[in-house]
Amino acid sequence: MATLFFWRVFLREPARRWRWCRAVALLLGAAVAAPAWALPTFDEVRRDFHASDTLVLSREGDVLQRLRTDATVRRGQWVALADVSPALRTALVLSEDQRFFEHSGVDWRAASAAAWGNLWNQRTRGASTITMQLAGLLDGDWRQGPGGRTVVQKLGQTVAAQVLDRRWRKDQILEAYLNLVPFRSELVGVDALSRTLFGKAAHGLDDREAAVTAALVRAPNARAAVVARRACGVLRDMQQHAGAKAARVDCDALDLFATAALQRRAFDASEGVAPHFARYLLRQRAAGGAAGGVVPERVQSTVRAPLQRFAVQTLQQHLRELRGRNVEDGAVLVLDNTTGAVLAWVGSSGALSQASEVDGVLALRQPGSTLKPFLYAQAIAERRLTAASLVDDSPAQINTASGLYIPQNYDRQFKGWVSVRTALAASLNVPAVRTLVMVTPDAFHRQLGAVGMPLRENGDYFGYSLALGSPEVPLLHLTNAFRTLANGGRMGPVAFAAPPAATKAGTASATTPALDPRAAFIVGDILADGNARARTFGTDSVLATRFWTAVKTGTSKDMRDNWAVGWSERYTVGVWVGNASGAAMHDVSGTSGAAPIWAAVMGFLHAREPSRAAKAPAGLVRAAVQFGPVQPSAGGSPQPLEAARDEWFVPGTQQALFTMDMGADSAYGASAGGQKGSKTAARSAAEPATSAATAAASVARITAPAQGTVIALDPDIPPARQRLQFSATGASLLWRMDGKPLGRGPRVAWLPWPGRHVVQITDAGGRVLDEIRIEVRGAGVASKPAPDRPL
After folding, report:
1. Helices (H), ranges, 38-169
2. Which pLDDT tens digit goes with each residue over 671-708?
3. Residue 661 burial by Cβ neighbours in a 10 Å radius (0-12, 13-18, 19+)
4. Whole-angstrom Cα distance, residue 725 to residue 748?
5. 511-517 mean pLDDT
6. 360, 475 in Cβ contact below 8 A?
7. Which of 80, 351, 466, 725 has its CA 20 to 30 A from that of 163?
């Protein structure tokens, strides 16, 4: 019945036949025209375009780093038509749509020629114009599938092309097409193609490169030989269009060129001077849910581009100068004291490193002596010490649950009684450990957490080695903690992204009190004192800047990490030097490793900007102090421990004279306590004298180490550098070890040897005055020195 109806309508009743055809045509036209009229405008297409890379900009607007953030496709930046080389524009029009500037979206002449060729099975150029191809790129319903386009798709594409031609200008159509057309593999748009295959921007493409690009539009994933053959034809058309004489195109050379270009991948996933900072910044934005999870094409940061480039160059140059000392990695961080803004972030030495992807700003490393300022600040705030208090830099053995802890100084020498100012500025280890005994590791652990250095383990885990920087902290947290000192003990967050335009530049960040401001000021005053650090660093150290700065260096065990962290009136700079692998450096100290980089960066920051010392906070007292000798000299006038000076004090802790009792020296050597200074106790002239033998016999005893001490040899310290200090009270003492002479005097040093030993002191006649038994464990030692180093 349906067949009879069809024949009756379409063969016997022409009027009805034409009405049916018109109805079908109207319905089909409406079906394809509706989506065509819904095509976006040029501005909408441009706004919705997203590159596969994100550009991280400096605060000045310069590109610091380009990072690929979309792994599904490779798009470059949107390129304006004026920034596309004339050669490529010409090649594309000649290859894809010769009458592009003449037709109204559809080339009817080319369409009729293609239809006629299909009728007679002849090969033709094709009838799809650039405008029609762009319509297919803008609306997925009209894109060609594996089996080609259907009749409905072709009609819809034709209508859409005419709509586009009416709404858009020709230059807009060509610009959008160049940015949206897919090329080889994952490449989309002319910017990604030109940078990947030719290693240059689109405005620099020459005739050969333009011909290869145009050939890839027609056959994106064709073999290199096919692309080269088509590019050869495009190049001939370009020469003819230019009116040049018929010149022979070397297609063989073009084949070699195209083959090499199609194998090239010059468009790196990351490029710039701040790769680690850019990745961290984007991670922070993603963690904060910025922009609804969409990664923006451009992110403006707080980093200063000139400073970043200088820091990178300075780090690499200094590491090259240290070549041969087994050091290849480093990191630099610069913070604004007021806002907390990151002004420079160098996470690696780049090509000099075998682990350039490791971010040295975030890596956990041992900070060494850079923790000492916070320890002394806590002791001063708790009124346990003042900047003028005397502490003993002498051999100490501290009994702990895990054994005997024997701290050593970097140079294996002891300075005797020194002030806290000297102990901190000269970075002496033993006084720092004695101070931690007073403060306690748990209390100091809490203080480190308050200044932004949360440690994974508790204070008991680290014990007294916490004073010498045994935990692991990143440079980011350590530098911000020093910024806390610069800000009078107030801790604030670090800022990475540029603030909104509505926020006034230089606005102070929200801060919370973390340290006593008076103690923070005193510590800063000590770290800025070049005379106080002279005992270790000398008077002409690289740390001595021409403007006001406070700085502390640090070196971890076995020279694995070297630091220099300090601040000026406006900036805080932190530098780390070492090896990402954890390998030890060779003979690299605080003044030869990180300090020169720190000084250079500080000099760059203050090339035209002054730096002055901060004003003392309310409540501090400045008073004149004098220092007495440890004990009267054998002949001549006694010399003071340190020169008289004016010193800062927390109210109620000031005093005019700092000296020690005659008997305090020996008593203090046996333990780590008793840090307070007192006036000298002089013997009365009327006191009857006793014989030397009687005095020696009555008070002679071994004060350190204690009876039954078990000593574990450190396998990281060479045997020749390990010494156990023995001390005793009395006069004219002779020491014996296992019955053999060891030395004479109140103190002797012994090279430990595994086993059980008997230690004795005798008088001149050989009579045993005191005796202890000790045990030394461990026999294996390393060949390289690895002490607890303060610098």
Report:
1. 42-48, 86-96, 108-119, 130-138, 151-167
2. 444 333 333 333 322 233 333 333 334 468 888 887 87
3. middle
4. 6
5. 94
6. yes
7. 80
